[in-house]
Amino acid sequence: MRQVVENVESTKRQYALRGRATSLGWRDEQIVTIDSDQGESGASASWREGFQRLVTDVGMGRAGIVMGLEVSRLARNNADWHRLLEICAPADTLILDEDGIYDPASFNDRLLLGLKGTMSEAKLHVLKARLRGGILNKVNRGEYRCLLPTGFVYDELGNVVLDPDSQVGEIPNCFSCTCCMAYCRSWLST
C-alpha cells in the first residue's frame, strides 16, 4: 500500500486510461474503473475483490475492453491470467496495455498475452528471491530483526526485552493474582 501512497504517478497514469477508452469510442458512462485492488499483490486472485469483479463482468458480457498500463500485472500467476484470457475470448472482450490492443480470441494475440503473463509471474519470482536473499544476508550478519509480539521491544544491544511502557509493565501484575478473575476483568475494563 505504501507504493500507492508514495508513487502517485503510476496511479495518475492508470486513471488517464479513461481518456484512452473515450478516444477509442467508448462513452464515459460505459467506462468502469475497478481500483479496489490497488496496492494489493497480484500473486493470487482468490481474495482480490476487484479482480473477481473484473472476471465476472467480462464473463457476463459487460466489458468490451480491459485496460491497464501492464495488464499482465492484473494477475501475477498464470492460472488467474489465463483464466481471464479464456473468459475474454468468447465474450469478445479486448485487452489493452501500453504496447497495444489485443484480441484474446486471436491465437497470435493470446500467445503474446500468455508470454506477457509468464514474464509477469517470473518478475514476481525474482522479486521474492531478492527479498529472501536480503533477509538471509541480514540473518548471516546477525542484523535481522523480526516483528515482536505486543509488549516486547528490542533494546540498544538488540536483545528482546519487555516494553518499558508503564501500561505494559502492569500486565504481569494482573496475572499474578491467581485467585481473582474478577480483578482481571475489572482491570481490563479500565
From TrEMBL:
Domain Resolvase/invertase-type recombinase catalytic, chain residue ranges per copy: 1-142
One Gene Ontology MF term: DNA binding
InterPro entries: Resolv_N, Resolvase-like_N_sf, SSR_resolvase
Pfam families: Resolvase (PF00239)
Stated name of the protein: Resolvase/invertase-type recombinase catalytic domain-containing protein
Annotated source species: Paraburkholderia fynbosensis
